[in-house]
Specification:
The chain is built from seven helices and no strands. The protein is mostly helical and about 130 residues long. Helix 2 packs antiparallel against helix 3, helix 4 crosses helix 7 and helix 5 packs across helix 6. GO terms for molecular function: DNA binding. One of its GO terms (biological process) is regulation of DNA-templated transcription.
Length: about 130
């Protein structure tokens, strides 16, 4: 498991246990990622994920935990292949989750899903 996946795994575990990262822990994670990551785009997405890890999807009553994770990653600009890699699931599983999210949120296709996810993420980052 590469370092970035390990960081994301730790963050997801904290989220699953409803543990919030304190400022010191968040800064430590950011410094670690900065020192290791050579991919600026992935670094930015990881930092954004850290910023919203404490936030729950407004539609959490409608979405499963995994669907919420995927919805947040879509909002950060991850494509299905990247989501599959980060969450260690198959591309087909991501596609199934995307279809379920579209259905549960009564959206009209993948474009509307991306738009809704981006808007949700932007709202969370502004808070």
């Amino acid at each position: 498991m590469n370092f970035t996946k390990k960081i994301i795994s730790v963050i997801q575990e904290a989220q699953a246990q409803e543990t919030k990262l304190n400022l010191e822990d968040t800064i430590s994670v950011i410094k670690a990622v900065t020192n290791v990551s050579e991919n600026k785009n992935l670094l930015e997405k990881t930092l954004q994920l850290i910023l919203i890890v404490e936030q729950k999807v407004d539609t959490s009553q409608k979405l499963t935990i995994r669907e919420s994770q995927i919805f947040n990653l879509i909002g950060l600009g991850f494509n299905s292949k990247e989501i599959a890699e980060v969450l260690s699931i198959s591309h087909d599983t991501v596609s199934t989750h995307r279809k379920n999210i579209i259905k549960k949120l009564s959206l009209k296709g993948a474009g509307k899903l991306q738009k809704a996810a981006f808007q949700h993420t932007n709202e969370k980052l502004k808070k």
